[in-house]
Amino acid sequence: MKRVLFLYKYGILGGVCTQLYHRLTAIPKNEIEVHCGFMGNHGAEDLLGGFCELHFSLDGNGMVELLEREKFDLVVIIDTEEYIQKILEMETRPRVVIEVHTSIERNLEYLTRIPENLPYGFITVSEFMREEVNKRVEYLEADKLKIIGNIIDTSKFTYSELQKKEGDPPLVWVGKIDDHKNWRLAMEISGGLRDRGVVHELWFVGGHTASGARSEEFFTYAEECGIIDTIKWFDKIEHSEISKLLRRARNLGGVGLVTSKGESFGMSILESILVGLPVVSANSGAISEISELSPALGLYELQDSENAIKMISERIGGWRDNSEWCTILREESALLAEKFGAEGMGREYWSHIIEICNVE
User: Fold this and answer.
1) By the 8 A CB rule, do 273 and 333 touch?
2) What is the pLDDT of residue 145?
């Protein structure tokens, strides 16, 4: 049985730990023993406990002790330079793969500091991210960088027949209230819809980590955009509840909105389409790769919010009365579920990990 250690700085309920969870549910039986190490525990234990051996409060020195005590066939480091630096100090280093999830430019700069003699290879989640890694790792050979998409929980994010509900259709925005996710643009687009007489609500889903100052800025800007009365902010919501909220938005004839300046994968877009909610998104990062897969996704350029307003106006409220739209969403949901479900994507991921472990 192969022994694999995953290392990530943040033991939080978020994108990376959610991916670890989905992968662990699809792990080949009796082939791999998985350990996961984090510097802190902020929900990861609740999510991953029982699926793997967990190691918390694992600073650089603690990681070195763990590696010397336990013999792993492979160590996978996810966007955490502190662990990389400590492994570089070891006389006998384990086989290392660097996994890249972040799409924020300043957080990718650590890649430029990884020496050629450390990583066996790299893994990332999209063609866009392949380019981002290649720009920063000049020595990287094509066969040492594997693209494997994220796994989506298709048991929760799944299509069910449309049940029309009465009420104002929502424009649904999912993410952290930060500059990268570009929340202000969502408010500006909502204000533009209001000016054109398009009745709607603006739902913000997530953002409970926003500081007091950022929360105040959030509501002040909503006032400036003239949309304070249309906003609902679901700041504290369990990930397992998001699918129900998206389904509720769909039944009201809502539309998903993405304003991000760059996405490594586009998880929230896929989750929305899987439940049958059409999406209008900025054409940034890896999002265009989803557009190639799904006609349920409309793209606009970040500097062209007028086009976003136009596309949303054409969809919101009325799409659910269009049989062609309903057919597209039902069929796209089935196709995306097959491609990004745990069985297919999980099998691809673990096959690659086992292959690396087996290299002599």
Assistant:
1) yes
2) 97
53 CB neighbour count, 10 Å cutoff = 13
pLDDT value for 29: 87
pTM for this one? 0.87
Is residue 46 within 8 Å of residue 21, measured between CB atoms? no
C-alpha–C-alpha distance, residues 320 and 324, integer Å? 9
| Phi, psi dihedral angles at 236 (to 5 degrees) | -110, 100
By the 8 A CB rule, do 63 and 82 touch?
no
Longest C-alpha distance within the chain, in Å? 67
Strand-strand pairing, 32-38 and 96-100? unpaired
The predicted structure's pLDDT at residue 14: 75
**Per-residue model confidence (pLDDT) at position 210:** 82
Q: Which residues of the chain, if any, have pLDDT below 50?
A: none
Report yes or no: 150 and 345 within 8 Å, Cβ to Cβ.
yes
Any idea what the Cα angle at residue 10 is, between residues 39 and 350, rounded to 5°? 100
Q: Tell me if 107 sits within 8 A of 81, measured CB to CB.
A: no
Q: Nearest Cα to 79, choosing from 39, 117, 33, 21?
A: 39
Select from 248, 271, 245, 244 the least CA-distant residue to 258: 271
Contacts of 246 (CB under 8 A, 6+ apart): 157, 172, 256, 271, 272, 275, 277
The pLDDT value given to residue 303: 95
Q: Given this model, what pLDDT does residue 141 score?
A: 94
Q: Which two tokens stand for residue 93?
A: 């280093």
Give the separation between CA 122 and CA 341, rounded to whole angstroms.
22
Pairing assessment for the beta strands 96-100 and 74-78 based on DSSP bridges: parallel
Residue 142 confidence (pLDDT): 94
